[in-house]
Design a protein that fits this description.
This protein is α+β, with helices and mostly antiparallel strands. It has helices at about 75-90, 120-130; strands at about 15, 20-25, 30-35, 40-45, 50-55, 95-100, 135-140, 150-155, 160-165, 165-170. It has a 5-stranded mixed sheet with strand order 1-3-8-9-10, with no helix packed on it. A hairpin with a 2-residue loop joins β9 (about 160-165) and β10.
C-alpha cells in the first residue's frame, strides 16, 4: 500500500534503481547494487522510517533539478535533501542517522584523486553533506575495488552489505 511521499506501510522489498530514491517505514526493505555509486540510508531509529538513495555523482552542475523525477537520487547534494524533506513530511521531529556503502574504485589504474575515481568523490561529498546537516554517520562500507549489494531493513536499521568476500552488517 502506497501513501503520500512514496511511504510504504506493508512489509515489502523494494529495489532502488541507479539514481533512484525510496522512503519506507516499518519492516520494509530497500535494496540496491552499487559500484562507484554510493547507497545512502538515512533513518529515524525510534520512528522506524527511513530512505535510501542510489547516488551516482557528487553534485548537480546541470542547472536542472532532479527533484520530483525518477532520478532524484542521482546527485548527493540533492538526494540527501530530498530524503530529509520527505521524512520530515511524515514526521517533523526526527533524530536522523545515516549509513553508507559503495564508492568503489572501479578503474584499477586510476589514482585516488584521478578523474575516473568517481567513487572516492562520491564518498567525500556524502560525508561532507551529512556532516553539514548534522546527521551522524553511524557506519559505512566504502571504497575497495568491487561492487556490492546493499540491503536496508527499516525496522532494525540493519544494512547488510554483500561483497565478493562475503557479507557483513553495518
Amino acid at each position: 500500500m502506497m501513501f503520500a511521499n512514496n511511504l510504504v506501510e506493508t512489509t515489502k522489498e523494494i529495489s532502488v534503481p541507479m539514481a533512484g530514491l525510496e522512503i519506507v517505514s516499518g519492516d520494509s526493505i530497500l535494496r540496491t547494487f552499487v559500484g562507484s555509486c554510493v547507497a545512502v540510508c538515512i533513518y529515524d531509529k525510534e520512528k522506524k522510517i527511513g530512505g535510501m538513495a542510489h547516488i551516482m555523482l557528487p553534485k548537480n552542475n546541470t542547472g536542472n533539478s532532479t527533484k520530483g523525477t525518477k532520478q532524484e537520487g542521482k546527485f548527493a547534494d540533492e538526494a540527501i535533501d530530498v530524503i530529509i524533506e520527505k521524512l520530515k513530511n511524515i514526521s517533523p521531529s526526527l533524530k536522523l542517522q545515516a549509513k553508507i556503502a559503495g564508492g568503489a574504485k572501479i578503474f584499477a589504474h586510476e589514482s585516488e584523486t584521478g578523474t575516473l575515481n568517481i567513487g572516492n568523490k562520491n564518498i567525500i561529498e556524502v560525508r561532507l553533506i551529512l556532516q553539514e546537516k548534522k546527521i551522524p554517520l553511524i557506519s559505512q562500507s566504502v571504497g575497495a575495488k568491487n561492487g556490492r549489494w546493499v540491503t536496508f531493513h527499516c525496522d532494525t536499521q540493519k544494512v547488510i552489505v554483500k561483497e565478493n568476500n562475503g557479507e557483513k552488517i553495518i
